[in-house]
Amino acid sequence: MNVDIRYQPAFATIFASLLPGESIIAEAGAMASMSPQLEMKARFNGGFFTAILRKIFGGETLFVNEFSCPRETNPGELVLTQSSPGDIAEIDLQGNTLLLTSGSFIACTPGVKLGLGFAGFASWLGKEGLFRLSVSGHGKVWIGGYGGVLKQNIQNELVVDTGHLLAYEPTISLSISLSGGIFSSFFSGEGFVSRIRGQGDIYLQSRSLDGLTSWTNKYL
Amino acid sequence: MQHGQQEFAGGVFNEKLPSGRAGASIVLDQSGIQAFTPDQKQFQIPWSDACVELGGASGKMLFCRNHGRSITIFSEAPGFIHSVRNFGGPILGSQFAPIERKMAHKRMGVMAFWSICLGLLGLLAWGGLKIWTDGLDVAVDAIPYSVDEAIGEYAWKSMDLGGAEIKSAKPREAIEKLLKQIGQHRKLKDSKFEFKIIRNPATNAFALPGGKIVVFSGLIEKAQRAEQVAGVLAHEISHVTLRHGVERLIQSAGVVTLIQLSMGDATGLLAVAAKLASIAAVNQYSQVQESAADTEGTHMLYQAGINPEGLIGFFELLKNEMDEKNEKKPEFPDEEKDKAPRDQDDEFENDESATNEASEKEKQAQAINTVMDWLSTHPAHQERIDAINALLQTLPRKAYSPIDVHWAQVQQAVKETEKEGANP
To answer: Taking the CB of residue A163, how many other CB atoms lie within 10 A of it?
Structure first.
């Protein structure tokens, strides 16, 4: 499978060339175009009950689509996008696990297992969702964010504004706190922040959709 | 793995690793903790140089670091924390105290979370039940009574009422008089009543939505006094005014269907609704509806000045008949069920014996089905008698006037029509 991410960083789009017998699993609604010989099958996003939980608590779609290239046909091209303008990051899983905040998952290869776990109230208050998706196994995962997607290695602690976190490793812990004192937190416009502690990689989006909605609200 | 060692899946952080980390197989023994990466690299921290800390996204991951923090070995595999405490506990000593506190807090948090979840689930179930019970009332109220009338009218014309109509003046006048006297105290003032007396031995009466009532000749012949028939009629009027037919239709056909029905021309739907209504009227009112009709009927009789003990007397009549039937013939006759619709109150009596052709097995199966069907929808006669008696205890004492109908003459008039074998 050859995957090319084009139009980065503002309008990143995944162009996947599927060879016969290959397939890719994508979030429902992520497909922009596909070759006619490709087959699409919708299935529950990890089993019926998990899909329901993922829909209710993970902010994800109830179904995922599996695009596959039949063995007896020519290779086909699949174009996947995300709903917000911004960049897409490709992550290579080598048996490790990554936790995704709600709405950041776009697609993965079939060797990747999708799961759901309780993220804690800190994550919920930090606007990252009460439950989080976990991706584990071997294969590639594509995540998308609003604005640029930044990978950062944490060695000890980092403070991140709520709504910017896209993904993090299980060795990272999240807690929620005020950005400063009560006065500063209230008047600085920062409010709550996520305190990220531990060792591992995190993925951040450079813009927050909350910021966009606040900005557009002024003109509505 | 050697004897005295334990192995877990986890990972390791170290600068020498390509991306600073790797998955690893972790081995614990008396000397310390070791991590073996897939590319054969080995890292070791002796217990004397180890610091332990709980963390990670789940809050259940244990990190073991050397004092220089150059190596961090971690895992959240089940049993890992317990094993580290077993092997390194004597040396790590007090480092486990804050971990144990944290774990205890976490356990309490998890318990609190599940308690809240269970509470919410209970609340949700209660809410669902409330919506189901109260929601049904709201749905019934949203549907105009004209829908009941339309369904009843359609069923009245299309269904088999169970026999030929008796048009003799005497019994008709008697039933009309009873209906008028009881009907004055009905809940739904818009409702109007129409009735037919049908020649059928069943001790039976039933009501269709919209106020269409069928009284079987068997009921008139077997009732010992007019108050007993008045009790049955009050009960049937209650089914109409409490709109039990539409309630049952909502439960079986769905409220959307009925709303469609009330919106305009829907002949097909009307036919289905009428069919369902007729089935509901003759044998599928629920126990709750039967009890509600008993209560409402008793109130109406009381207000109309008719002794409600007539209804009790009627149930006693049925009870005695059933007892006699059980003593005399254990098998359940079935051909009557084909001739006459079964009644919602089981106010029927089947005098005919089972056909000789029916096999014993079939008879037994039918008997079981009949009893199970009856049990599913009808409270026991004694229960109903007790419930009415209990209700009467709560009402102020009152002097009842006898019904001004010569019941023996009414019965005689019905018998005469049978002799004639045709409608007079």
So the answer is: 18
Q: Which residue in B has a C-alpha nearest to residue A167's C-alpha? A: B57
Residues in chain A, overall count: 220
CA distance A215 to chain B (A): 32
Size of interface A-B (CB pairs under 8 A): 41
**Tens-digit pLDDT profile for residues B292-325:** 999 999 999 999 999 999 889 888 888 887 777 7
Which chain A residues contact residue B23 at CB under 8 A?
94-96
The answer to whether B209 and B188 are in contact (CB under 8 A) is no
Query: What is the DSSP annotation of A69-136?
Result: --TTS--EEEEE--SSSB-EEEEEEEEEEEEE-TT-EEEE-TTEEEEEEE--HHHHHTTS-SEEEEEE
Give the mutation candidate from B12, B19, B21 for the A interface (greatest A CB count, under 10 A).
B21
Rounded to whole angstroms, the Cα distance separating A146 from B332 reads: 75
Give the model's confidence band at B154: pLDDT under 50 very low, under 70 low, under 90 confident, else very high. confident
C-alpha B250/C-alpha A25 separation (Å) is: 43
The dihedral built from the CA positions of residue A167, A170, A173 and A174, taken in this order, carries a sign that is positive
What is the DSSP secondary-structure string of B99-128?
Answer: HHHHHHHHHHHHHHHHHHHHHHHHHHHHHH
How is residue B255 written in tokens? Answer: 């409220």
ipTM, two decimals, is 0.70
Nearest residue of B to residue A171, measured between CA atoms: B56
pTM over 0.90: no
How far, in Å, CA of B161 to CA of B7, rounded?
Answer: 80
**CA B143 – CA B261 distance, rounded (Å):** 9
| B194-212 per-position pLDDT tens digit | 999 999 888 878 888 889 9
| Contacts for B86 with CB less than 8 Å, ≥ 6 apart | none
CA B399 to chain centre: 39
